[in-house]
């Protein structure tokens, strides 16, 4: 079943009532993925907002219009943060300070967000240089990158105050007058909070209807295997999902067909890995496999995602024992199928 969309997207500053006490709005993002979906629940004690977008003045202005038109005079009691990525976490601190909202999220999400906010770097570290070399970039490219200020979390995420309420896997929450079961996504972000009931799944970025969620390896954990986590969770979630539940996703539009989409996402990565196995009969860098991994050209705007996702696929095959790296006389790492394959 292909995804189907029961709602058109709301305009900036507008909201759609998806169901009683459940609302959807969309906020712009200044990047190729040019929007994020925001949801909120209404209960007797006030409102729970799900995710917030980036910490950018014009986004705050849109939020203020949304609050004045669609939320006030009800108080904003809490923010439920699905995962730590800046487009979701950027204004959580603002809601906590300006509105007295309590943060609800997984412990891993809170700790990662706080850690990244405090880790400000004016230049990339040697860990970055080793990571880029492992992907296959040459010394000149790496030297150029090492002389530029990298993205820092604090650039687009407001500092989180201390204090939050931990959300646990398999916990039952009542929001918007409905009971929800918490399930953690993995792979796109660790301990990504998703909420489930018979009619709706608040899925965040774990399952998107029109694009594949980014699966990333970073210099802080260069040997991680998030692709295994992602495919395992998608397949496990597909066991309990139905195509009749409305999936409330972080990007694009809420959609039906979530069970089929979870299976399709897992199969997509299995097929990509099969294509890599064929390509790596001869030694290649990760960069040389970008055309296999990605359907669109890699530019300076999306290169960071390409680096991290290529590493995720190669790490997965390496940890299965199917490929191994070697460093050539030029200092560049190339990968090839092991002799046992």
Nutshell version of this structure?
This protein has 341 residues and is an alpha/beta fold.
Reconstruct the topology from this structure.
Elements: E1 16-19, E2 22-28, E3 35-43, E4 46-50, H1 57-71, E5 76-80, H2 86-89, H3 92-99, E6 102-105, H4 107-118, H5 126-135, H6 139-146, E7 165-166, E8 172-175, E9 178-185, E10 192-196, E11 200-204, H7 226-240, E12 246-249, H8 258-279, H9 290-293, H10 303-319, E13 323-327, E14 333-337
Parallel strand pairs: 4-5, 5-6, 6-7, 11-12
Antiparallel strand pairs: 1-2, 2-3, 3-4, 8-9, 9-10, 10-11, 13-14
Helix pairs in contact: 5-6, 7-8
Total count of strands: 14
Beta-strand content bin: 15-25%
Mean residue pLDDT: 95
What is the number of helical segments per DSSP (H or I, 4+ residues)? 10
Molecular shape: globular
Structure write-up:
The protein is built from ten helices and 14 strands. It has helices at 57-71, 86-89, 92-99, 107-118, 126-135, 139-146, 226-240, 258-279, 290-293, 303-319; strands at residues 16-19, 22-28, 35-43, 46-50, 76-80, 102-105, 165-166, 172-175, 178-185, 192-196, 200-204, 246-249, 323-327, 333-337. The longest helix has 22 residues, at 258-279. A hairpin with a 5-residue loop joins strand 13 and strand 14. Helix 7 (226-240) runs antiparallel to helix 8.
